[in-house]
Amino acid sequence: MISVDEAREKILKEIRAVGTEVISISDAAGRVLAEDVRSRRTQPPAAMSAMDGFAVRAADVANVPAKLRIIGESAAGGSFDGELKAGEAVRIFTGAPLPPGADTIIIQEDTEFDGGTVTVKEGAAKGTYVRAAGLDFRDGDIGLRAPRIVTPRDIGLLAAMNVPWVTVRRKPRVALLSTGDELVRPGEPVGENQIISSNSLLVAALVDAAGGVPLDLGIARDTAASLREKVRDAGSADMLITLGGASVGDHDLIQPVLAKEGLSVDFWRIAMRPGKPLMFGNFAGIPMLGMPGNPVSSMICSYLFLIPALDALRGLPPRLPPRQKALLAHDLKQNDQREDYMRATIDGEEKGLPVVTLFPKQDSSMLSPLSAADCLVVRAPFAKALSKGAEIEIIPLHQPYPAV
Ligand SMILES: Nc1nc2c(c(=O)[nH]1)N[C@H]1C(S)=C(S)[C@@H](COP(=O)(O)OP(=O)(O)OC[C@H]3O[C@@H](n4cnc5c(N)ncnc54)[C@H](O)[C@@H]3O)O[C@H]1N2
Ligand code: MOO
C-alpha cells in the first residue's frame, strides 16, 4: 500500500490541463483564466471629482472664507470645456471630469452659494477629492494574471477594463460510472435487498462545485458485458471515475474487465481509511480513478484526490484540503497503519481552537454522520493515543474552497 501523499503525486503527474474557450465575462465566475488579461482602457480616463461641490484652484482657497465666481458646471458623463482661472470655480458633481486649471474639489457642505458666486468656508489641500487619471489602472496594464479562478470581484474589474470576453479553460468533463447489481436510482422501484445509489450523485455534485461537468454513465451491473457497454460512453470525457467494484470480491470486476478494454493500472490500494481500495490508472487515453463503493470512501477520495486532479485539469496549481488545529472533546485511541479520516462535529471553542467530537461509529457506509459532520479529523499512521483536550488536525467541511 502507498501513502496518501504518494498517491496524489502519482495522480497529478499524469494530468494535463484541458483546452481553452472564449466566453462572455458574465459567464466567467468560477472559471479559470487561461491567459493574462490586459486593460483596454485607462480608469479614470481623466482627472475626476470624487464629490459633489466645486472645482477650484487650491491657491484660491488658501485663506478662507474665499469668494469665487461660478463660471460653469461639470456633471458625470459631460464636461466643462473652458479653462478655470484665478478667482473662479466650476460647479461639479461626483464622477465628472475636472476642468482644465482646477486642481482641488471643495465639497458643497463647506460652501455657501447662489447662482453666480460661491463662498468657500473651509480650505482644502491641493488634490483633495480629485481622482487622478489612471488612478485605478491604465490602458495595457495586466489586470488579471492566469491561471486564476475568476471571482465576482474580478468580473467587476474586467467590465471596468472594457474587456467583454475572456479566454478560460473549458470545464473538464468527468464521467461517473456506478457499478453493482444491488443499486437502483433514487425514486425507482426498489427491491428488498437493494440499496439506493447515492455515490454518483454525491460525487457529481462535488465535481460540479469544483468546476467540472459530471457525465453520469449510469449503473453497470456486475457482469463483464454490462461494464463494457457502459464504459464505452466515457470516450468524450477528460477523466473517468468508477464507483464500486474496486475491492477483491468475486463481483469486483473493474480491474479484470477493464484491463481487456485498455486499462493500465498505475497503483491500487492506499494506506488510508476509508478509501483503501482506490485505484488509479489510464483508461484508453484518459486518467481513471476507481473509487471504492462505500459512499464515505468515495467522498473522502474525492476530497483528497479528485478535487486536486480537477484543479490540474483546469490548469490550476492543485489545492489540497485546508487543515487546521483543533482540540479533542474526548480521549482517542491509537491509530493503525492507515491514515485515518474521521467524521466529527465542532462544538464550541477553547483557547481559540474548535473543539471536536468524533461520531462513535465511523463505518464508511454511513451517510447521516457524513452529512452532519462539520469536519474530518485526520490521523497519521500509527498516531499515538490521545487524551481529552489534546491538539489534533482537522479538515473543515464548510466551504473549504472559497471562491468569492
Ligand atoms: N476481503 C476484503 N474485503 C473488502 C476489503 C478488503 O480489503 N478485503 N476492503 C473493504 C473496503 S475498505 C471497502 S471501501 C470496500 C470497497 O468495495 P468495492 O469498491 O468493491 O465496492 P462494492 O463492493 O461494490 O461496494 C461496497 C459497498 O458500497 C455500496 N455501494 C456501492 N456503490 C454504491 C453507490 N453507487 N451508492 C451507494 N452505495 C454504494 C455497496 O452496496 C457496498 O455496501 O470493500 C471492502 N471489502
Ligand atoms: O477503505 Mo473502506 O473505504 O474503509 O470502507
UniProtKB/TrEMBL annotation:
Q: Name one GO cellular component term.
A: cytosol
Q: Which CDD domains match?
A: MoeA (cd00887)
Summarize the protein's role: Catalyzes the insertion of molybdate into adenylated molybdopterin with the concomitant release of AMP.
**PANTHER family named in the record:** GEPHYRIN, MOLYBDOPTERIN BIOSYNTHESIS PROTEIN
The protein's enzyme class: transferase
**SMART domains in the record, alphabetically?**
MoCF_biosynth (SM00852)
Q: Which cofactor does it need?
A: Mg(2+)
The pathway that the record names for this protein is: Cofactor biosynthesis; molybdopterin biosynthesis
Record's keyword terms, sorted? Magnesium, Metal-binding, Molybdenum, Molybdenum cofactor biosynthesis, Transferase
- Please provide the Gene Ontology terms (biological process) for this protein: Mo-molybdopterin cofactor biosynthetic process
NCBIfam families linked to this entry = Glp_gephyrin (NF045515)
Family annotation (Pfam families): MoCF_biosynth, MoeA_C, MoeA_N
Question: What is the protein's given name?
Answer: Molybdopterin molybdenumtransferase
One GO molecular-function annotation for this sequence? metal ion binding
Native source organism of the sequence: Sneathiella chungangensis
MoaB/Mog domain span: 175-312
Documented EC number(s):
2.10.1.1
What family is it from?
Answer: Belongs to the MoeA family.
Cross-referenced SUPFAM superfamilies? MoeA C-terminal domain-like, MoeA N-terminal region -like, Molybdenum cofactor biosynthesis proteins
The superkingdom of the source organism is Bacteria
Q: Does the keyword Transferase feature in the UniProt annotation?
A: yes
